[in-house]
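Worked example

This section walks through a single chain of length 437. The input is the sequence exactly as stored; nothing has been trimmed or padded.
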Amino acid sequence: MYKKLFFAFISIVIITSVVQAQDNPQKELDLLEQIATHGDFQFRNFEVVLEFQQPIDHNNPDGKKFKQRVFIKHKDFSKPVVFHTRGYFARPGSETELSKILNCNEVEVEHRYFAPSAPDSIEWQFLTTEQAAADFHAVAQFLKQFYKGKWVSTGASKGGQTALFQEYYYPEDADVVVAYVAPINLSEEDERIPAYLADSISTPEARERMLNCQRAILERRDEIMPLVMKGLEESNTEFAGDPNVCYEYGVFETSFSWWQYGSGNYEDIPLPDASAEDLYKFLQNGITFFYKSFNDYFIPFNYQGYTELGFYGYDTTPFEDLLDYVDTDWASNRPFLVKEDWDISFNPEIMNNVYDFLMSDGNNIIYIYGEYDPWTATGVWPNPETNAIRMTKPAGNHGANILSFNGEEREKLISALEEWLDLKIDRRRLNSLANHK
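Given that input, the structure is written out below as tokens.
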């Protein structure tokens, strides 16, 4: 009885809030009625939070189910929908820059197998790009009963990948795709990434300073390792493997992680004679990747990375004279990311098929990358025969976005959105967003 009364109260709150904001209340009532019959929902922070029933295996729709979180930020049925396909966990209350730019509705969907959007018992074989795309497609088809305007699929990083996968598997779901910093890796550990870090990123001076810093951390491990172990104790975590091996891997990873999210100013990289404390702080960019707490957080991604998505490893030759525990020229991340009970192998066919599709049929797509982001090494260069646009932010990192561009570059992106979505974007509002980002 309590549950029924609570559900009725929540329904009234949602209906009242939406009706007050719109001139067409019946349509909103119909939407909420359909949501109520499809799954459990809440109204929180001006979002409708829907627990959408999905089959674990879309090839067996009558089989086991799980609940997938969907966040609906409703503004007006006459406006477009930004369809935010998450690659990881969803973030309640968040809003993409794209929905701000377009001043429109947004639907955010958590990726399958990231808690709480996961079944009680994990069957890993159903964590595939195809099954995830079928999840997103089911949500889109359900909501398109009400939102009949233009749809824009979007996401960043792995979410950018899922937006591109959605276009590959279900091109009818979206009119436009905006993929932020989305890599398309073509092998289990794509060697283009360490090559980019070693030979192309930033300037020769910056790359040399990074290498010298990494070597210093190895040379001075007797000073730095005690600080690492103290930090582990204070954070109540442990390494995902042998501490000495993780230390050397942490040094390898430091370059990738700092360029991915760091300032890009090479003068922020410590010199070899910096204090042990400063070198330890810089090492935190990479070594936390091998903390068990961090590793456990991304277990579903790890599975996907070594079955379909691909990842990266490390060229150890610049450090071979300083290594005590890693004795190979290529240090694979597989031992840390692949669980012993996963009997898996990498299938390169999926990513290669997606890449071929994007080259031949990838129209109405915007790709955005950051110049200093290592994932840019495996980003998409669209075929000139498509109308897709790639824009790379100079000195940008993994947070590059539309509003980070200025002048003609930003105008090119905005004009493309206007043309493909058949709408007009308010330039004054756009400038205000850019000034307050």
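What to look for: Residues 183 and 375 are 6 Å apart (CA to CA).
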